[in-house]
């Protein structure tokens, strides 16, 4: 299993219920096109599962020398 997830928001939260907006904000996403790198943990996977229709997810292996914005 890869150590990190690259999450990119592909759709707006306009018209979505409040808890989905909070999940998107909790992931650190700010709007369509924004992206973050988060740890591959059950808590982040659960958050992503709630809003999977609004985001695009890729598993990445972040090495020691990589500099990713989390």
What would your notes on this structure say?
The chain has two helices and three strands; from the N terminus they run βαβαβ. The protein is α+β, with helices and mostly antiparallel strands and about 70 residues long. A three-stranded antiparallel beta sheet has the order 2-1-3, with no helix packed on it. Helix 1 packs across helix 2 (about 40-50). The two termini are about 20 Å apart.
Key words describing this protein structure:
single chain, 70 residues, alpha+beta, Ribosomal Protein L30, Chain: A, 3 strands, globular
Count, helices: 2
The total beta strand count reads 3
On the 0-100 scale, what is the average pLDDT? Answer: 92
Question: Biggest sheet: strands, sense, closure?
Answer: 3 strands, antiparallel
CATH class: Alpha Beta
How many angstroms separate the termini? 19 Å
CATH topology: Ribosomal Protein L30, Chain: A
The class by helix and strand makeup works out as alpha+beta
Shape: globular
Q: What letter string, H or E per element, gives the SSE order?
A: EHEHE
Please identify which CATH superfamily we are dealing with: Ribosomal protein L30/L7
Low-confidence stretches: none
Strand order of the largest sheet: 2-1-3
Can you tell me the CATH architecture? 2-Layer Sandwich
Proportion in helices: 25-40%
Rg estimate, integer Å: 12 Å
Number of domains: 1
């Amino acid at each position: 299993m890869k150590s990190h997830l690259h999450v990119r928001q592909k759709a707006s939260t306009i018209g979505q219920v409040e808890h989905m907006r909070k999940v998107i904000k909790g992931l650190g996403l700010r709007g369509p096109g924004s992206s973050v790198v988060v740890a591959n943990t059950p808590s982040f996977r659960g958050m992503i599962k709630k809003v999977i229709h609004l985001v695009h997810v890729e598993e990445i292996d972040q090495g020691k020398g990589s500099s990713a914005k989390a």
